[in-house]
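note to self: dont lose this again. the chain is below, predicted strucutre after it. 77 aa total, dont forget to put it in the shared folder this time
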Amino acid sequence: MTRRPAAALAALALAAAALLTGCGPSGGQSGTSAGSSAGKQDGGAADSAQVQDMQQKLDAAESAAAQADTDTAADNG
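---
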């Protein structure tokens, strides 16, 4: 029962990362084909930075969940 909050937090962090990665901006360019190709080129770099940022946030959330789990086990043990 003590692992449930940590597991829920980790699951929430994973779901948020997946949602934000899948629903992120597509480069902000639309309309003409030249604008679309420019948007894809710029979007690739932006997507990479966004993925890296989300990975850092996910790692931090997992670390916090693990620390909370450790603290809970220490309090109950």
